[in-house]
Amino acid sequence: MIANDLLKGTLRTIVLKLLADNRRMYGYEITRRVEELSDGKIRLTFGALYPVLHKLEADGHIQTEVEYVGKRVRKYYSLTEKGRSWTQQKVDEFFDFVNTLTYVLKPTPA
Amino acid sequence: MEDSVIDRNLERIRKDLILQGLTYDPLTDDLLDHVCCMIESEMESGSAFESSYDKVMSVIEPGSIPKIQHQTLLLLDKKFQRMKNFTYLFGLSSALVTIIGAFFKRMHWPGAGILLTVGIAMVVLVFLPLYFIINYREQTEKKNPIFGIVGYLTLFLLLAGALFKIMHWPGAGILIEVSIAFLIVGFIPLYVVNVFQKGGGKKRTLPYIVMLMVGIALIMVYSHINMSKYLLDIYMEESLINETSLEIVSDQTAGLIELSSGNAEADVQENISRIHEKAGSLQKMITMMKEGMITFVEQPGMPINKIRDIDNRGAGREAIVDSGLGREFETESRDFREMLKVLVRDPVIMAQIEDHLEFTGKVWPYEHGTSNIVNDPLMKNYYKLTDASKGIALSEYVAIDYLLHQQ
Q1: pTM score, two decimals?
Q2: Per-residue exposure over B25-57, b if at least 16 CB sit within 10 Å of its own CB, e if not
């Protein structure tokens, strides 16, 4: 398992990237996909996911389509144009960060 | 098409979620679908609906649903987010202003007082109230705000007391006493109760630990002043007595010198004026050191009884040690003693003089005393200077008197 405090700042980027790679996804699907991709190391609870999704929607980075599954409503989330370029920026930022961190943390040759 | 078992139970699930505190509709749709997906996934492995549903609901921690909703709504509340950003930015900049002010104060640059006052006022009047409001609004279950309020008042009083103390404003003592009382009978018991009630949550302890440390530091500073207040009083009284004696002796010496002019022989006259000149230049150095210390604490021209309580240990270091005046004074006063030794042949009179100039050997052991001067508060160093000053005046008088009567 990856510690929660390490994950905190990157959750938004993970969600955005998943939506960039898939046309549209619903909440449960996102949590399953994250678990799958991370080999079970990242367990995204719905408590962490939905506040982020709603915030991204309110900021205009993602949009929702509603579909009925049986009697219940399912909300599909997808990136807006604005969200797409922003995602790229966030992903780049993240890799930049990881590279820097790798460089800083790598053991120095004696 | 026949309804699935989940669709048949949909309203029941919805009601259960609402019962847990879900009221925000856009979130209800998300969570309802999510929970249904979880049930479906359980059922795929062969469980019946009821046991699957029970299992899923048992995974959801009690209180977690209102928490999600609260967090979502706060994230969506633009005004709240702006307020939060503003508070953090404001806190950071006011801390910066305070630290710069403290640095200015340490360097004795102008504007330190304004910076410190503005910085601490920003922290106390704007940042802290905002911080406590935000903290309170972010709690899902509203805890009793009494802890926050007492905490705020304690911090308010502590910081105000520190500011008053630094600025030498009247009322600092009372403020600090009241804030320590708040800390001991209000904040600490509440804090202990709070920690035991919560058990786990360590996240919010940092600001309170900082606060506790500020309090403890202030208690230490305050108790130190309390301890030496009695001594400071003694040093002040002695200094005032020394200064009065100095005036009287100087008048007497002036009378002697007036008497000698025209009456004494030329070589005696010359010796007397050499002594008087030397003693005068030593007195001038002492005055410079005294004034230097008083200027150092930014109270130029203040009489000593008005600044008795200014516990600034930098004054002696700056005005006596770093200025080089102390060292110069030490050498010059030794010269003075040697000069008198040559002129005064009578061992009894010379013993008297040595007694008056004792500070050159014991009271004023500059070589060994540097650390004393650096570590002593202004009042004590001021006393040492008046003592040396009186000693010089007395030995000057005794020496001139001896020279006049010797003929």
Answers
A1: 0.55
A2: eebbbbbbbbbbbbbbebbeeeeebeebbeebe
